[in-house]
Amino acid sequence: MIGLDAAGRYGSRSYWVQTMFSNNLGAHVIGSTLSTGSSLKEDVTATTSGGVTTYSVKIVNPYAIVPQASSVTVANGQRFAFPATSVTVLQITAK
């Protein structure tokens, strides 16, 4: 997952995905689903501390064979766009 060559060292894509996921862990996994027909894959976790809950939403757009951009509209009408073959982490805090 970490490559070495004459110019230095570098992390592979899977290394960076695993790093992003491990840096955004929550105490509890929250069940979630995206709209039917979406190619996106998601993972939602939550941590509550001092009466404040922080949700970590990790979204992967896995299309690698035929790259395809996707988007999601959340309950308040805000729309998020996800480029093809991307990984996105959203941090949402609620009281």
Largest sheet: number of strands, sense, barrel closure: 4 strands, antiparallel
Strands of the widest sheet, in order across it, are 3-4-5-8
Q: For the record, give the distance between the C-alpha atoms at the N and C termini, rounded to a whole number.
A: 38 Å
- H-E string: EEHEEEEEE
General description of the model:
The model has no long low-confidence stretch (mean pLDDT 76). The protein has 95 residues and is mostly beta strands. The N and C termini lie far apart (38 Å). It has one domain (26-94). It has one helix at 13-23, and strands spanning 2-5, 8-11, 28-30, 41-49, 52-61, 70-73, 79-82, 86-94.
Brief rundown of the structure:
The chain is mostly beta strands and 95 residues long. Helix content is 12%, strand content 49%. The protein has one domain (26-94).
Task: Present the secondary structure layout.
Elements: E1 2-5, E2 8-11, H1 13-23, E3 28-30, E4 41-49, E5 52-61, E6 70-73, E7 79-82, E8 86-94
Main features:
1 helix; 95 residues; mainly beta; four-stranded antiparallel sheet
